[in-house]
């Protein structure tokens, strides 16, 4: 898994994933490095993802978690 490779390289990363089942089905979540995942309530206004030019850690996008 990509997360394992980041971990082995001591590279911090965030994960963004789509929730396919349960109460939050159809939503996206963002799990910042070292923190709990939270729902992205308004994707158009969500500003907590690292911007590429300011990125100090990796960003991993996946379909489900």
What is the compact description of this entry?
The protein starts with a helix and ends with a strand. It has one helix at residues 2-8, and strands at 13-18, 28-31, 38-39, 58-62. The model has no long low-confidence stretch (mean pLDDT 83).
Summary keywords:
4 strands; 1 helix; globular; about 25% strand; about 60 residues; alpha+beta
How do the strands and helices of this protein lay out in sequence?
Layout: H1 2-8, E1 13-18, E2 28-31, E3 38-39, E4 58-62
Parallel strand pairs: 1-4
Antiparallel strand pairs: 1-2, 2-3
Number of domains: 1
Estimate the strand proportion: 25-35%
**Strand elements, count:** 4
Spatial strand order of the main sheet: 3-2-1-4
Let me know the average pLDDT. 83
Instruction: Give the CA-CA distance, first to last residue.
Output: 12 Å
Helix content: 10-25%
Q: In sequence order, what are the helices and strands, one letter per element? A: HEEEE
Unreliable runs: none
- Largest β-sheet summary: 4 strands, mixed
Global morphology: globular
The assigned structural class equals alpha+beta
Radius of gyration: 12 Å
Q: How many helices in DSSP terms?
A: 1
């Amino acid at each position: 898994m990509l997360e394992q490779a980041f971990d082995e390289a001591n590279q911090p990363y965030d994960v963004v994933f789509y929730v396919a089942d349960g109460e939050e089905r159809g939503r996206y979540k963002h799990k910042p490095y070292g923190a709990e995942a939270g729902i992205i309530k308004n994707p158009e206004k969500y500003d907590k993802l690292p911007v590429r030019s300011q990125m100090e850690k990796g960003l991993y996008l996946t379909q489900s978690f």
